[in-house]
Amino acid sequence: MSETEDWTQRFTGLSRLPDHVRNVLLRDGKILRSKKGDQIFGAGHVPQNLLFLLSGTVRVSQTSEGGREIVLYRVEAGQSCVMTTACMLAHEAYLAEGVAETDVTAIALPKATFDALVSAEPIFRDFILAAYAHRMTGLFKIIEDVAFGRIDMRLAARLLDLAGTSETVSATHQALATELGTAREVVSRQLHEFQRRGWLEQQRGLVRILDRDALQDLANG
């Protein structure tokens, strides 16, 4: 990214802010680059910056006391992290971990600037709270799915989501279990059942989708 580029134009909400607010963001925001696998933040850490992702993907997950991990959401280019937003607004430490799934380039907005803008600029505060509310809706859906959802439906939906427009998903059984917040053995049994039905085939660390329509029908309930 060019040092002179107006990065706020990459974010729908930020691009609509008045010039004097965007000028503060451009003045104080610093470029941050991380490699795939780097920890962006960890449980117990107090955030010092709000990150606006320019490129790459950050996976946000939480681990229980028993060691079971669940993926809460992903932050993609053009988004900020709701977990960071919540912690900065409440002045609390993270309860989850963020890891770069790919190489990441982001803008780091210092907490002091964030606090000043939230306090003095209602339009910036509205932008932050709107993004927060939108992501929280998704988190409540995850809670509902984990508590009440059928694992076969959730697995079918997650396979399609991870595959995107591709027909393959590069993930181990453990990685898929982490996505769903369940045990590896549960995912393994369900994948074998999908394979028995002819919906997919498995290779080491790879799932190849053979019947997208069948998975979609199951995911839709």
From TrEMBL:
One of its GO terms (molecular function) is DNA-binding transcription factor activity. Residues 13-135 form the Cyclic nucleotide-binding domain. The keyword Acetylation does not apply. Residues 149-213 form the HTH crp-type domain. One of its GO terms (cellular component) is cytosol. Pfam families: cNMP_binding (PF00027), HTH_Crp_2 (PF13545). InterPro entries: cNMP-bd_dom (IPR000595), cNMP-bd_dom_sf (IPR018490), Env_Response_Regulators (IPR050397), HTH_CRP (IPR012318), RmlC-like_jellyroll (IPR014710), WH-like_DNA-bd_sf (IPR036388), WH_DNA-bd_sf (IPR036390). It comes from the Bacteria. This is Crp/Fnr family transcriptional regulator. It comes from Gymnodinialimonas phycosphaerae.
